[in-house]
Amino acid sequence: MSLPQDSVPDKLPNGPGAAAILAAGIGSFALGMLAVLADHVARFGKMMIFYRPTGPLSGVTTCAVLVWLVVWAVLDRSWRGRTVRARPLITAAMVLLLLGLLLTFPPFGDLF
Hints:
Elements (H helix, E strand, L loop, with lengths): L14 H26 L1 H6 L8 H24 L6 H18 L2 H4 L3
Helix pairs in contact: 1-3, 1-4
């Protein structure tokens, strides 16, 4: 069943989708930063041990997922029903994703 032509909006809001994309980039960057901190700051690394057999990785990944979910929820709520400029958000998300990915590799993470 299709909607009558006069009830279809010209432009659907992209706020929730943009929120999901940007939150994924921020969450990825958080993972990389937390991994570097846990590797280089002994006290922080000990705080990140949520499950002893996996070491700090358990806390790093748990905290990164929490950052991603909180950012996604906040952005989704504030951008619901809105149309935002997608290009800068997608660019920022891709840059953050790339930085987060690079920080998880020892040659790059060890530079800090």
